[in-house]
Amino acid sequence: MLLVRSASSVVKTSTTARDFYVQFWKYSCLRSTVPCLAASKYTNYPVHPQNIRKFSGCSRRYESQPPETLDLLETYKSSFSFPPSTQEIKSLSEKHIGKQVCLHGYLGSRSDVSKKLSFVPLLSKDLRYSVQIISVGVKDSTGNIPQSHGQIRSLTQHTPVAVRGTIKAREPSKTETLGEAKKINDVELELSEICPLNDFPKDLMMTEDTNFISGERHLQLRTTKALRDALKFRSDAADICRERLRSQEFVEIETPLLFKSTPEGAREFLVPTREKGMAYALPQSPQQYKQILMASGIPNYFQIARCFRDEDLRADRQPEFTQLDLEMSFAKGEQVMQCMEGLIKRLWKDMLSIDLSSPFARVTYQDAMAQYGSDKPDLRIDMKLHSIGELLPADLVSKIGPHTNPAVDIMKLHIDDNPSMTRNFVNEFMASPEAAPFLSNPDGQPGIFIYDPRQPLEGLQTFGFQTAEYIEETLALEEGDLIVLQARKKGPFTGGFTPMGRLRLALHKAAVAKGYIPPPTGYNFLWITNFPLFTPSNDTDPGQGGSAGLSSTHHPFTSPLTPHDIDLLPTDPLSVIADHYDIVCNGVELGGGSRRIHSAQVQEYVLRDVLKMPEERIGDFRHLLDVLKAGCPPHAGIALGFDRLIAVMLGKESVRDVIAFPKSGKGEDMLVRSPNRMTEGQLKTYYLKLVD
């Protein structure tokens, strides 16, 4: 008799030598598959079949995962080695009839005709095309219904799949599209196999009409063809820019994203390091690096660059954005403007099949502000401003603003030939939220008049006879015209808008929205030139941190326009004109550039003696000053806002419509939940401390 102790009990048996070795071998297997067996001194231990896996050779492993884990891993394995596609859906045609193919794509909405017949559209990988799948649940020669028929009827819409089958002819349907996808209308696929590659939640509603929140951007992209098309359009436009510039011997060079903090004008994003008190700054633009390249023997540079600015957000602003950046050595602003005009014309020709007129119009900053109240006017809107302050009666001046001797702008907008309709429009606008900023304007509320021949002096009696006659002739008034006055403080123009400039756009937008006037069409380009080199600084603009009460209108590296402007630097810097130029289309500033200061001595003079920056801040530019000293040639460049460019080309109101994953109005990415709060460990690693 021999006692043999098993994992679950001790059994008493009579045995031969052969039986002994069999029992011993089984016992050894149990010890190798149940690791805790030895530690338990062979006490009772429940051994379940699922805890012992099949093995080959001497490899034995204990599997502790629950059954549901094994199921999901097996499901993943089934999609892991999916068959490659033999054909793209868009290429299917009658020449493929009778061929066995494998297609990849997404299932559409299934239509079950009966238990034995189903039709399912299969959308292509890019969701642009669809082909019909026909699944037949008829028993084969062995008496079995094809497994694929049950599979496809169990899958939800939007499931990614690989399918095999035979291409067959079909009667074309009455429609050419399925939603936003183009139908392959002359053939269909008879299903033989289907391999689901992932699940799509049954409780998730996703249709073309669904409005997704910002945190579901992936679903919005998947259901909105216009968004996907915009991203493709953007990619193609970037290719054209690269091809065009390379053909002109520009070299594409990547500049660093981890830069240093320098007071160029906008607030920066800082990147702390693990060295106490040290941080990088993300670049507001590659401005300083590209100037360094000009001193490095690179004749023509360009880059589609990522830039970062911590500033208030609007429809055309993002905290991170893309710009087409270029610089030319031994060049002035004129060469840069000609280069950019050629590039823009090429883009419009190749992407939109539009021939732009040549050359683009040029308007000085002073004229743009005086005639349109904006440094980025939309010339398609024919509502020019006229200065009339000197001609107004004193009592009228006192009623339209608090200033003693203001500048007063006047303009007209034709709403309707019937003055009553114009009056209704004015009343509706002034009662709307859009009018609130103009009613609380510190320069005074606008003066509103309607040209009406049935009224004394055609409704202009407040102006007096002579001024009314001047206004009538200057504005070429017609019955029903809306006439608007707006006062402002007299003095040189600063900033991007006057009060009347903003009111002009608001009134026009409201008139278009109400259907009184048609929306402007086409593309109107112009260059805005002759900006002031400096503007008075204010509390909201960080500027360059100097004590002179001035800040650079654009950045402190911009050159004066003429020798006369250079002479004004010591005595009258606010009168200095910059060799700066903005490219504007349809009221949108697409980009701006300038000739740069290539002399280290003049650059340091501007920083120290004109802006009166402290020595510590001048030291932040020491690297650039040293580079300029090393024989840097004259150079000029421009940066084109690539997001804005694509939005204008596609007629989009916001740059968010041409960016894959834009930030919200608060600078947040709601999909990935950024920015996120720093942990105590991160604060400690980077020597940071939160303060109230």
TrEMBL record:
Gene3D superfamilies: Bira Bifunctional Protein, Domain 2 (3.30.930.10), GAD-like domain (3.30.1360.30), Nucleic acid-binding proteins (2.40.50.140)
Taxonomy, superkingdom: Eukaryota
GO biological process, one term: aspartyl-tRNA aminoacylation
Keywords of this entry: Aminoacyl-tRNA synthetase, ATP-binding, Ligase, Nucleotide-binding, Protein biosynthesis
Domain Aminoacyl-transfer RNA synthetases class-II family profile: 242-675
Gene Ontology, cellular component aspect: mitochondrion
Gene Ontology molecular function, alphabetical: aspartate-tRNA ligase activity; ATP binding
Cited SUPFAM superfamilies: Class II aaRS and biotin synthetases (SSF55681), Nucleic acid-binding proteins (SSF50249)
Pfam families: tRNA-synt_2
PANTHER family with a match to the protein in the record: ASPARTATE--TRNA LIGASE, MITOCHONDRIAL (PTHR22594:SF5), ASPARTYL/LYSYL-TRNA SYNTHETASE (PTHR22594)
Family: Belongs to the class-II aminoacyl-tRNA synthetase family. Type 1 subfamily.
Protein name stated in the entry: Aminoacyl-transfer RNA synthetases class-II family profile domain-containing protein
Native source organism of the sequence: Tothia fuscella
Taxonomic classification: Eukaryota, Fungi, Dikarya, Ascomycota, Pezizomycotina
